[in-house]
Amino acid sequence: MAQQQQQHRAMYQGFRLNSAKLDRWSKKDEGFNLFKVGLPRRAEPIFTGLTQQMPKDAYNPYMLGCISQKDRDYQTAMKHYEHALQLKPDSVAILTNRAEVLMLIGQLVEARDGFQRVLQMDPERRFPPTRRCVELFECIEKIIAWTNAHPRATPQ
Amino acid sequence: MGSTINTNRVSGPGVRPVEINPQGANGSVDRFVAGDKRPDAALRDVTNGGGKPGNSSAALDDGPSFVATDHDHASSLVSGPFGKELANIFATHGQISSTAPADFENEVGYTAAA
Description:
Chain A is an all-alpha fold. Chain A has helices at about 1-10, 20-35, 40-55, 60-70, 75-85, 90-105, 110-120, 130-150.
């Protein structure tokens, strides 16, 4: 654990972190890694706990949203993303995922507006979620055009 | 977990439950039970594009290839005429966009500066 904290201390140079905070940051990384390797069920309690411990940190509800989105529980995902956005309204990562959920639940125009907002926030496409957004925005433009042309086939 | 199947081989009732990883990457795993006498419905859950049983690479200009009977809009979306395009995006960028804690924190500095 000491070695892990040392690594995290190096990783987060510039941030004012005490030992307790470092421990929580280690937990965040642990949860993120569990999610990335396909173990969202094990990541979920970590982020649920961290949400209670760090109520002003947007990352934890954001990751809970990712977990719900992966489970295709889009309503819960939206709830978590909305919570995260209250804490960090200008987050490209959160806005991208929220727009994607809007797309998946069929709110295509709102989703397109969400993608557009992200593209405006990061015009140089420097942040990875924005690069995802570029393609999703192009795709949703086509989907909207197609659904307008084929109203009877529009999925509900 | 994470095994891949050829959806062309899912042909009807009696097929055993299979774990599918359409992209074969990013740890994305979807599960469906294909023995529910609705193999077409099961196939709609697979982000393979096209959405036509037996033709997982249906051309985008084939027009509507699905019937909107599912509650899950996403399933219809990914099996509709733009399913292949969406599947390509998910294959390139991952099924779910997730950001590491450090990158998420750095985003503050970036967006504040932008």
